[in-house]
Structure prediction request, 183 residues.
Amino acid sequence: MDVTVLGVLELSSIAAGIETMDTMVKAAPIRIVEAKTVCPGKFLITVTGDVASVDAALSAGKRKGEGYIVDELFIPNLHKGVVPAIKKEVECAIWDAIGVIECFSVVASIEAGDIAAKTAGVLLTEIKLATGIAGKSYVKMVGDIHDVEAAMKRGSDHVRAKGLLCKDVIVAQPHSDIRPFFL
Prediction:
């Protein structure tokens, strides 16, 4: 699936999430990419479509889900590496440096990954979305140390400004024994 426009709502209530999703698809011609419960009892709605439709659907969803919105995201020009990283469909030959941005919301990691990948020549290897990690999420990236540093700074600064950064780390010249656990 070639997704270039992405809209995401993360809600603190499963019931409100289902109602919000229905409102969104009734508001505009969008396609639901994913809709699921995530830890700890939140509901995540990810949609795509043309820019105007995704914008309209998100606006309707935010009105319906008011009071339950944990985080939201609208990216009209999503980096092509984000969706494969979410689906863990990435192969990696680069191993100079690794970076991890750990966040307190699902949306924050998607946003951080998109910003990081647009900032420098890094490869997003995974974006983990809250399942089994207490509602947190993270984005992992690899590349040349200078690219990883630049990408991490921009991605982390954005998430930090939202108050959703848990921890960020860069490992230069990682040991080969950790590679199977990172990719």
The mean pLDDT is 91. The chain is about 35% helix and 30% strand. The first helix runs from residue 14 to 27. The longest strand covers residues 31-38.
